[in-house]
Each structure stands twice: as C-alpha cells, then as structure tokens.
Specification:
The complex is a heterodimer.
Chain A lengths: L1 H16 L10 H6 L4 H30 L2 H5 L8 H23 L1 H7 L3 H4 L3 H12 L4 H29 L11 H16 L5
Helix pairs in contact in A: 1-9, 3-5, 3-8, 3-9, 5-6, 5-8, 8-9
Chain B lengths: L2 H12 L10 H6 L4 H24 L9 H23 L1 H7 L10 H11 L4 H31 L7 H4 L11 H24 L16 H14 L1
Helix pairs in contact in B: 1-7, 3-4, 3-6, 3-7, 4-5, 4-6, 6-7, 7-9
The chains are: A mainly alpha, B mainly alpha.
Chain lengths: 200, 231
C-alpha cells in the first residue's frame, strides 16, 4: 500500500501543488502562445499529456536499461552523462513517430491534436520531466505517474488561463498592458492562488 | 564600426534577446530569483551559444539541409553537457541553484534560433561574435531582472544587504514564482511603450519573435520545415 500512497502523493504534488507552469516555469511558451481559446488550449493540453506520458516512460526505460545499465556500470562503463543528448533526440524522434502513428491509425485524434504535436518538441516541460525524474530517483512506475501528473498540471493551468483570457478580451486594459503583459499579470495572480495549495 | 563590433552591438542593444526579441522566457522567469543566479545562467548560456555558433558555422557546408536540426541539437546538447559538468565541478552552489535549467539550455530558443538564422549562413568568426553579443545581451537581461527581483523581494544587491540596512522591508513574493510573472509583465508593458516611441521616431525596434509574441511556432517552425522536407 505504501507504493500506492507514494504514487498518489506524486500525482497530487505535481498536478496541483508544484504546478509545472505556475511554479516551475516549464512550458511557458505554449502557455502564453496557445491559450487564446479554451478549445485550442484543451487540444494543446491533451497533446502534452499524451506526449509527456509516453516520453517519460520511454526515457525512463532508456535510462534504466541502457544508460544506467547495471552490467555496464559493473564493467566500469558509465553512460549516464549522455542523458541530455539522448533524451532530446528521443523526444524529438518520438514526437515525429507519434504524429505519423496518429495520422495513420487514429485520424480522429490526429485531427484534434495534430497541429500541436510539432510545437511540443521545443516544449521544455518534456525534457524537464525526463531529467527531473532521474534527479528525484523515481522508479519506472513513479516516473510515468510523475510525467502524467505534470502534464495534467499543465492541462489545468493552460485551460484555466484560456478561460480567463476569453473574459479579459472584453475588459478595458491600459494600452501598454494589452496582449502578453496582461496575460503575465494574470499568470502571476494564478500563481499566487496555486501557492495557496502548498500552504503559504 | 567594423563587422565584429557591429555583431556585439546588435546582440546587446539592437536585438537584445531578453528585452527586444523576448526569447528564452523559461529561464528568464525561472532563474532570476537573484542577480547572481541570473548572471550565472546568462554566462553559461553565453558559453554554449559562442561554441555552438562557432562549431555550427564551421560545419555549415558539411551538414545536409534535411538533417540540420537534429545535427544542431546534438552539437548544442554536447556543449550543454560539458558546461553542466564544468559547473558541477567548479561552481557547485550555483549549479545546485540552477538545477534542471542548466540541461534545459538545449531547448532554449535563442541557441537554435541563432544557429538557424545566423551561424548556418555566416563565417565562423562572425558567428562566434554573434554568439558573444547575443549571449551578453541575454546575460545583461537576466542579471537586470534578477537584480530588480532581488532588491524588491529580499532587499539585497548581489547578496549584500544594502537596502535591508536602510530599514526596507522586503516584499518576499518577488523572489517567489508570482514575482517572476509580475516583473516580466511590467517589463513587457514598458517595452510596449518604448516600442511605440521608437516607431514614432521612425526607428522601429525589431519585433519580438519568441513565445511572447504569441507565436509559439516561430521557434519550432524550423523543425516543422525539416519534417516537411523529410516526408
């Protein structure tokens, strides 16, 4: 049962308390860029959940069984220093594969997520999750849950932001603050609200 | 002004990555809780940028066009790994403070952006100077934002308690996450005013080209292009 409570702990911590966008500043680009409409924000969020979950599993497997392989480590070969290079290439390739796979096999899903997939390669949240999971010394299951929770946190943040932005559009905003500036002020207020979860 | 100092001027003032182009917003928000952290992040990015520009420029005629993005990424990732280990060896505390944002230099828009738009088209020395200029511009931007947040949020300047001694009560929120968003919001608003004034004078600034312009695809559009060529 201990493992289950650990997993639930990880899930809640990274989906809500330590929100990936609002407290760790990963994935700021899509958060600012693709949050004009709730629908597109949800699409982006969905694509991120999909990719981060798969990516955290695959990078976890690669790290555990290839880079930090015990047989290799016992022979004195330590490949863990390659993690940044390997992970970024794996993620870039993975996004392409996911795109091709969805296009062929699940056209309906591709239609709703397809446009956002190429944008995810440069989303630092994906690489950040893969690297953090190693720093936190998670096992494979924990890594996947961590990835999923982080992505759900991203989904929550971007959809909330899009909802607020749709309302903001009709407000009277001082000229210099129109556009990105007011979005950042909103993000600051959201971030304060999310800090409440960690008990200020 | 010769072509090398022109590159420095271009990076530090005319196309400053933080204030004018608004690139690399993730590290800008994340590591500027103090001026020292901002400076450290800026300088490590500068080192990566100089060498990535230099190496990519040297290999620009050898790298086939269709695989250039993966090739650039491998070069940048190798350099980032080297910088990461150097920081761990010589600047332990800074490396701990910056944490995952050091390896995340790989996905910094500025680096791939400069590789794609400058280093892959120009000679190695010019590209290296472009890297120095852009890197220093980024460093200045991060240090200034870090300084503002540190003064407001902790009452210190480069860890020296100057304002605290004067009886200033720090507003702690500025060193936390919301402060980062808030400072950047005012920065963007301020730049909007400057932009307007410069336009009125007939000397328009370069357009912001990163995520801040709401144009996320700008950074990865290059990747999309290469995908299209592969198909």
């Amino acid at each position: 049962m201990e493992t289950l409570s650990t997993l639930i702990g990880i899930a809640i911590t990274y989906a809500i308390v330590n929100n990936v966008v609002l407290s760790q500043f990963l994935g700021i680009c899509p958060f600012l860029g693709v949050s004009k409409k709730t629908e597109t924000a949800a699409g982006m969020g969905g694509a991120v959940i999909f990719v981060i979950t798969i990516a955290s599993f695959i990078t976890g497997v690669i790290y555990k069984y290839i880079l930090a392989n015990e047989a290799l480590l016992n022979m004195g070969i330590d490949l863990t220093y390659l993690k940044t290079i390997v992970f970024i290439l794996v993620i870039a390739a993975l996004v392409q594969f996911v795109e091709m796979f969805l296009k062929k096999s699940i056209p309906a899903l591709y239609k709703s997520l397809g446009v956002y997939l190429p944008l995810i390669t440069t989303n630092c949240a994906v690489l950040g999750v893969a690297l953090n999971a190693i720093t936190y010394e998670y096992n494979l299951l924990e890594t996947v849950v961590y990835g999923l929770a982080t992505a759900v946190g991203f989904f929550i943040a971007i959809v909330l932001m899009a909802g607020i932005r749709e309302k903001i559009e009709y407000n009277d905003i001082p000229k210099p603050f129109q556009g990105t500036a007011i979005v950042l002020v909103t993000a600051a207020l959201m971030s304060i609200a999310f800090m409440g979860f960690s008990g200020m | 002004m010769n072509k090398y100092t022109e590159r420095l001027y271009n990076g530090i003032i005319k196309e400053n990555p933080t204030f004018v182009l608004m690139l690399g917003m993730c590290p800008t928000l994340a590591v500027t809780s103090s001026a020292i952290n901002g400076l450290g992040m800026g300088l490590s990015t500068t080192v990566v940028l100089i060498f990535s520009n230099l190496i990519i420029s040297l290999f620009r005629k050898r790298i086939p066009n269709s695989v250039r993005i993966p090739a650039f990424i491998v070069i940048v990732a190798s350099l980032v790994t080297i910088v990461e280990f150097l920081m761990k060896a010589y600047f332990q505390s800074l490396s701990d403070a910056l944490g995952v944002y050091i390896p995340l230099i790989v996905v910094n828009c500025i680096i791939l952006g400069r590789a794609e738009s400058y280093a892959s088209k120009n000679g190695p020395i010019k590209s290296a100077f472009d890297g120095i200029g852009m890197g220093l511009g980024f460093t200045i931007g991060l240090t200034l934002i870090g300084l503002i947040r540190e003064i407001l949020g902790a009452g210190t300047v480069f860890d020296m308690p100057l304002l605290k001694d004067l009886g200033y009560t720090p507003i702690a929120i500025f060193t936390r996450a919301p402060g980062a968003f808030l400072v950047l919001a005012f920065l963007v608003a301020g730049m909007n005013i400057v932009r307007k004034k410069m336009e009125a004078k007939g000397k328009p600034l370069a357009k912001p080209s990163g995520c801040i312009s709401g144009d996320c695809a700008n950074c990865s559009s290059h990747c999309e292009n290469s995908t299209a060529e592969n198909k």
